[in-house]
Design brief:
It contains 3 helices and 3 strands. It is an alpha+beta fold and about 80 residues long. The chain has one domain. It has a 3-stranded antiparallel β-sheet.
Length: about 80
């Protein structure tokens, strides 16, 4: 069986109102991923709807799409309406 601890991949997760691209899209590996899961509160990880990609381009497409959809769905509290 081959080693997988050096394999890096891209993770994209759901944005929040204050998210920037770097908050929802990042490169990681199997050693770092458990720390990321724990950082979200562990039990709340499923709410992140994380998706993993082999390439940055795939991750970037997903992340920018999530940011755009989030901007459309959530009204900005600083803008009257």
């Amino acid at each position: 069986m081959g080693r997988i601890d050096g394999i890096r991949f891209w993770c994209v997760r759901n944005p929040t109102r204050h998210s920037e691209l770097g908050d929802i899209m990042f490169e990681t590996d199997l050693r770092e991923l458990p720390l990321i899961v724990l950082g979200t509160g562990g039990a709340k990880w499923h709410l992140e709807e994380a998706t993993f990609y082999n390439t940055r381009d795939e991750a970037l497409r997903d992340a920018t799409g999530r940011m755009a959809r989030f901007d459309e769905e959530v009204p900005d509290p600083l803008v009257g309406g």
